[in-house]
From TrEMBL:
PANTHER family: DNA REPAIR PROTEIN COMPLEMENTING XP-C CELLS, DNA REPAIR PROTEIN XP-C / RAD4. The keyword DNA damage applies. Its main location: nucleus. Belongs to the XPC family. Residues 1-21, 104-123, 668-705 are annotated as: Disordered. Residues 1-13, 684-694 have a biased composition (Basic and acidic residues). It comes from Ambrosia artemisiifolia. This is DNA repair protein RAD4. It is found in: Nucleus. Keywords: DNA damage, DNA repair, Nucleus. GO terms for biological process: mismatch repair; nucleotide-excision repair. InterPro entries: BHD_2 (IPR018327), DNA_repair_Rad4 (IPR004583), Papain-like_cys_pep_sf (IPR038765), Rad4/PNGase_transGLS-fold (IPR018325), Rad4_beta-hairpin_dom1 (IPR018326), Rad4_beta-hairpin_dom3 (IPR018328), Rad4_BHD3_sf (IPR042488), Transglutaminase-like_sf (IPR036985).
Length: 753
């Protein structure tokens, strides 16, 4: 072993890399082991060996290969106690050749060896204090392919989420209506002990006064997993009879009891709707209610775990605070005024606290802010606030009327003020959310911000106050985050830079073209306004003032350097001008000789570049009615042309009918080759039309007699000469092309010079 160690250190000096040193050292060690095989076999006659020793050496070689860039020297330890190699064919050279083949097929890399200096100073020393451990070789575990949801799948998921929310709201209103059943309330009052009734006779009700009542109710009614009734009214009556029901039924009974005692009470439920993300409900931590494939109401009530805070009551206590407040009462778990415990309990039961809705009087109100202290965790899992507010707006009014109609209201607070005070309380909770301890939470937080998460178009102004620290990073209010734009971009919003303002930030122009990607709204064309040095000067809103443009004078529209007006909004119009975006407005302005300027309204992006978009013109205010007047004149002219064209076509139609009848009368008798049946049909048709035709001909002849401009001609002469009318109604007076027609139906267009 000493000889192997000295050779190992010598090779380390020569090569100087961990890979070469390890490979040569192990190869020479195998040679020494092969030479001592004979004596080893004599000592170990009674111990048949296998490939265990060789497998260990193979494992070490694979370990060195997997971590060849590590800065450690391979340990050579206690080979004296290791058993000699033995193979199936009894030859140690076979094991050596296989190991050398494995080494040759391996991919070795050069790495630095900082321990060479210490080993060179001590030639006979081998470091035995280093232990190298390896897991399975990299690449053995296959990664699951990450599949991104398409836009259509996201849209479907949102529609399902909205539909589920509507179903849950309908379910809550159904339960709230069942809690107002007078028979249920009377039955609950009959069970209530008399001593508890005396405790609730006080006018100024407090949360402590509700505790004995909640404890009695919790000990009287128990929770079971499921219900066998299909109707909730029947299930509630069954639970009242057996003193046992689901958590939903027990919570509904507590609400009915509080209302029977003339207490202003709401039924509160967590709406555990389907996720906004596609296929998110297929994960393992999905609530049990949606996992079960049973047919009751499992998809509408969420988790069925006993003790999960899914349903509770809110009782208005007049004695709390100076104005009273809504108190959380969970009769299922015997908790009073424990609103701060709901979020943690829901998380322990793997229930997301996304929507907490209170029901009363067939109405509903979102009270999630009261129970959720970490709003940033659920904000991305909620539906669009505009849609959600529009759904709850009529229901909120119904709920407000129902809860204001109780008798136990303090004298110093009017009933109509209760809703306003609660809304202020919820808004205050939204603005006093504690600082998150995770840096990632500040990325899109609605109250707080870290400077490290700001984009290149954002800045902190003013930079303070500092609200706290997260992992050493100062936390600022979100109100301090200001957006930055170029001066051209600020002009779109009707603002211009103040005099002698320096850029708040200077960026380098991006040379990368994102193919197929539409730029963001905040940076759509910032690169188009880069300076001569390839930089972009950005300014904040505090550096701007209202836009001041030169007014229009004497009917002349003020234009920019490009001979146009940038109409980003109505604020960008020069004083005394209007924007007309009507069709054919350019032609009308030129025809009336009105001064105008093309209106550029924005940019469109094609092939990674932006192109201006024009819509209409900008003219002085005194010409804003010129378009309407011109359109009225054009409309009248168009109607006159349409009427003349209609008269001409009717005249041509009648003339064609007369000509056809005349030809039938002249040549129908000479056809003798037709069969008798065809001749009969032709005669019948001629008989039906001959009378009408003769009438038309006679009427037309009478008109010709009264018209001195028309020369009467025989209708059925073979040598007919066309005579054209002098006053043709189909002629166009303004154009040089005229249409001449004869009485026989012949017409021709001529151009007059």
């Amino acid at each position: 072993e000493d000889e192997v160690s000295r050779e190992f250190v010598h090779d380390t000096k020569a090569n100087g890399t961990l890979a070469n040193t390890s490979q040569d050292g192990v190869s020479k060690f195998l040679k020494k082991v092969g030479s001592r095989r004979s004596c080893g076999l004599k000592k170990q006659d009674n111990h048949p060996l296998s490939w265990d020793a060789a497998d260990k050496l193979k494992g070490k070689e694979e370990q060195v290969k997997a971590d060849s860039c590590a800065q450690n020297v391979l340990e050579v330890k206690n080979y004296k106690n290791s058993s000699p190699l033995n193979t199936n064919d009894g030859s140690p050279q076979h094991a050596k050749s296989e190991l050398e083949d494995v080494m040759a097929d391996s991919d070795w890399e050069d790495g630095s060896n900082p321990n060479l200096d210490s080993e060179n100073a001590h030639p006979g020393y081998i470091n035995k204090n280093i232990t190298i451990e390896f897991d399975s070789s990299p690449g053995t575990a296959k990664r699951k392919p990450v599949r991104r949801a398409s836009a259509e799948e996201k849209e479907v998921a949102e529609l399902v989420h909205r539909a589920h929310l509507l179903c849950l709201i309908g379910r809550g209103r159904l339960i709230d209506s069942a809690c107002d059943d007078p028979l249920i309330q009377a039955s609950l009052l009959s069970l209530l002990p008399a001593n508890l009734l005396k405790l609730l006779e006080a006018t100024n009700l407090t949360a402590d006064a509700l505790t004995p009542l909640v404890n009695w109710f919790h000990s009287t009614f128990h929770v079971r997993i499921s219900s066998s009734e299909s109707s909730f009214q029947l299930a509630l009556a069954r639970a009242l009879e057996t003193h046992e029901g689901t958590s939903e039924e027990v919570a509904a009974l507590s609400v009915a009891l509080f209302r029977a005692l003339n207490l202003s009470t709401r039924f509160v439920s967590i709406l555990d709707a389907a996720s906004l993300k596609p296929d998110a409900d297929k994960c393992d931590d999905m609530p049990q209610g949606r996992k079960s494939g049973r047919g009751e109401i499992s998809t509408a009530v969420g988790s069925r775990k006993t003790g999960a805070p899914l349903y509770w009551a809110e009782v208005y206590c007049c004695g709390e605070n100076s104005t009273g407040k809504w108190v959380h009462v969970d009769a299922v778990n015997a908790i009073v005024d424990g609103e701060h415990k709901v979020e943690a309990a829901a998380a322990a039961c793997k229930t997301k606290l996304r929507y907490v809705v209170a029901f009363a009087g067939q109405g509903a109100k979102d009270v999630t802010r009261r129970y959720c202290a970490t709003w940033y965790k659920i904000a991305s899992h909620r539906v669009n606030s505009t849609w959600w507010d529009s759904v709850l707006r009529p229901l909120k009014e119904l709920e407000s009327r129902a809860t204001e109609g109780t008798s136990r209201t303090p004298n110093n607070v009017k009933r109509e003020e209760r809703t306003y005070l609660e809304d202020m309380e919820l808004e205050t909770k939204a603005l006093t959310e504690p600082l998150p301890t995770n840096q990632q939470a500040y990325k899109n937080h609605h109250l707080y911000a870290l400077e490290r998460w700001l984009t290149k178009y954002q800045i902190l102004h003013p930079k303070g106050p500092i609200l706290g620290f997260c992992s050493g990073h100062p936390v600022y209010p979100r109100a301090c985050v200001q957006m930055l734009h170029t001066k051209e971009r600020w002009m779109r919003e009707g603002l211009q830079l103040k005099v002698n303002e320096l850029p708040a930030k200077v960026l380098k122009r991006s040379t990368k073209v994102n193919k197929g990607k539409v730029p963001e709204a905040d940076e759509d064309d910032e690169n188009d306004f880069a300076g001569s040095g390839g930089t972009i000067d950005l300014y904040g809103k505090w550096q701007t003032e209202p836009l001041c443009l030169p007014p229009a004078v004497n009917g002349i529209v003020p234009k920019n350097d490009r001979g146009q007006v940038d109409v980003w909004s109505e604020k960008c119009l020069p004083p005394g001008t209007v924007h007309l975006g009507f069709p054919r407005i350019f032609t009308i302005a030129k025809k009336l000789e009105i001064d105008y300027a093309p209106a550029m309204v924005g940019f469109e992006f094609r092939n990674g570049r932006s192109f201006p978009v024009y819509n209409g013109i900008v003219v002085c205010s005194e010409f804003k009615n010129a378009y309407a007047e011109e359109e009225m004149r054009r409309g009248a002219e168009e109607r006159r042309k349409n009427e003349a064209q209609a008269i001409s076509r009717w005249y041509q139609l009648l003339s064609s009918i007369i000509t056809r009848q005349r030809l039938n009368n002249r040549y129908a008798d000479g056809i003798s080759s037709q069969p008798s049946n065809d001749i009969q049909e032709t005669n019948d048709a001629s008989h039906h039309t001959s009378e009408d035709t003769q009438k038309l001909v006679s009427d037309q002849a009478n008109e010709d007699v009264g018209n001195p401009d028309v020369v009467p001609q025989p209708l059925f002469e073979e040598d007919h000469e066309h005579v054209f009318l002098t006053n043709d109604p189909g002629s166009d007076v303004e154009s040089s092309i005229r249409t001449k027609r004869c009485r026989c139906g012949f017409s021709i267009e001529v151009e007059e010079l």
